[in-house]
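To close the section, here is one more complete example, presented without commentary so you can practise reading it yourself. The ligand is zinc ion.
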Amino acid sequence: MGSIPINGSSFAFQTRAFFCIRRAPSRVLLKRMNERNEPEVVRSETEWRARLGPERYHILREAGTERPFTGSLLELTAEGRYLCGGCGAALFTAEAKFESHCGWPSFTEPEELERVRLLEDHSHGMLRTEVRCKRCDSHLGHVFDDGPGPKRTRYCINSLSLDFQPK
Ligand SMILES: [Zn+2]
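Output:
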């Protein structure tokens, strides 16, 4: 539980988690949003459920969000790549991962921008940018424009949406 803020009260925890998810998307991201997509990997709902199990199915196929500070990949710093949990597409590299303190694995950018799809998400009374795998159209997380890299993007991705492949 090393990633819980030092003052660790549940109020601070919730405030911080809320702060992390309320940012609006930048114009650069907006330009790429809602592009049409024909996923290469198509499976029936029954197939997805059987492959993923209930937890991953909820995140990847129903755009669920794992509870902050609970994901198995949150604190991982090993060298390697992060693959889509739905289809195995290589999405993020360990070099792009950084500690954002917001409770989910965070990346400055995908390995190739073309491997993700961005969608406008109006759920929970906020305007956010949803990130999906372009190859199988599974939900990964959201992207915000307050990241530390030159592109300023912060891809906030569920651990359950990813599989880690060590180098
Ligand atoms: Zn995928």
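Once you have examined the tokens, check your reading against these statements. The two ends are 26 Å apart (CA to CA). Confidence is low (pLDDT under 50) at residues 1-19.
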